[in-house]
Every structure is written in structure tokens, then in C-alpha cells.
Amino acid sequence: MKRTFELAAFNLADALEAATLGVDRIEFCKDYSTGGLTPDLIDIFAFKKQFDIPVFIMVSPTAGDYYYGDNFDSGKLKDEVKTFKDAGADGFVFGAILKNEHMETIIDVEKAAFLIECADGLPCTFHRAFDIVTDQIGALDQIIGLGYKRILTSGNPGKAIDHFSKLIEFKNHADGKLTILPGGGLRSYNIDSLLDAGFMELHSACVDVNINLDEEEIKRFVKKMIG
Predict the structure, then answer these.
(1) Choosing a second label site near 5 at 20 to 30 A (CA), which of 14, 62, 184, 223?
(2) What is the pLDDT of residues 100-115, one digit of tens each?
(3) What is the pTM of this model?
(4) What is the rounded distance in angstroms from the CA atom of residue 186 to the CA atom of residue 190?
(5) For the CA atoms of the chain, what is the radius of gyration?
């Protein structure tokens, strides 16, 4: 089975450059400083005119966190998903959490299920909101039950490589029912243990300290994924 390198692209120029350098899939969003917002529709049209590699659209209604509450406009979100599908989106990325009566962080099942409904068959990834959920194994089972195909996770907040044992636990528990997609601080020099452990998909933004796309790092990452 071929390994998949998903790159988080925060603007059209970076997405186009990454595609020329051999990444396998783009997670398209904007505004790195907020952790990612829904990108501009015109950029998706522009990308798909030039490349046919899969593009997953981050759907993030507000900046900051994944506790959407009353900021969740279901009608607007449903329209956005439809327009992105029409523009050629191949999948969607989403995360929604809330606090229960015990102040534990849990999956916002109603909102997470709503995106699956809107995506209407296109694969969905549950985003790194998962990293701060209190009962992650229980949440993993919920996400599988909702129909998500991937969980993008670093295991806990921080760098994925620092939570290797958590990622292994999630991978083993998922048992092929969905893909655990490690992401968070991954670079070509620290992914060997993940590849050796059988993770077939990895996620990175490949940006430098100035938040600019690091083209040489993409090349190194692609080479490492090929093996």
C-alpha cells in the first residue's frame, strides 16, 4: 500500500507549489495563526484547474477553538460544503467539541454528524480538536460510528512525535475502521518511528520559522515517504 503525505496549505501559492513537489493530498485552509479557517472558494477552483490530486477542505466556522456553540450557522455551513463540492473538493476536515455537565471535553456529536450529512458521501477527517477530548478512546469509537474516515491527531496537545505511544494506542484500537493520521510538528527527520510502526498517512505543514513553505523540506518528506 502506498504511503500518503498530506500537506496543510494555507494559501493557493503554497498549495500549487506543494503539488508540483509531489505531495499526495492537500488539506486546504487559510490563516495559519488561528490553526486554520475555511479557505476561499476561488482558490479551490484555481487549484483544481491545474491539479487533480485530492483536496480536503477545512470547514472551520470561527477562529480560535472548536467550541462553536451559537456561532455554528448550519445553513451557511451546508451551503459552503455544497459549493466546495461543486468546486471539486474531494473531502472535508472538521472538528467540534463541547463541555458536558462535568466540565469534561467531549465530541459535539450533533455538529460532527451534521458535517457528515452535508458531505454526502465524501470522506471526512475529524480534526485535532480530538487531542483535548477527555475520554479519547470513547471519542474515537464515536467518531468511527459517525462515519469519519480519519482522525488528524498528535495524540495530545503538542507535537505528535512526543505522544508516540498514544498514537499507537489509537491505531491499534481503531483496527482499520478509520485511519489515524499523525500530525503536529512532523518533519522528515522525526517520522521514521511512525513509518516503522506502520502509519501509512502523515500530515505536515512543512513551514519554516517564518511560516513560509519550506520547499526543500517537502522534497525530503516526499522522499522519506516513498522509502
Answers:
(1) 62
(2) 999 999 999 999 999 9
(3) 0.95
(4) 6
(5) 17
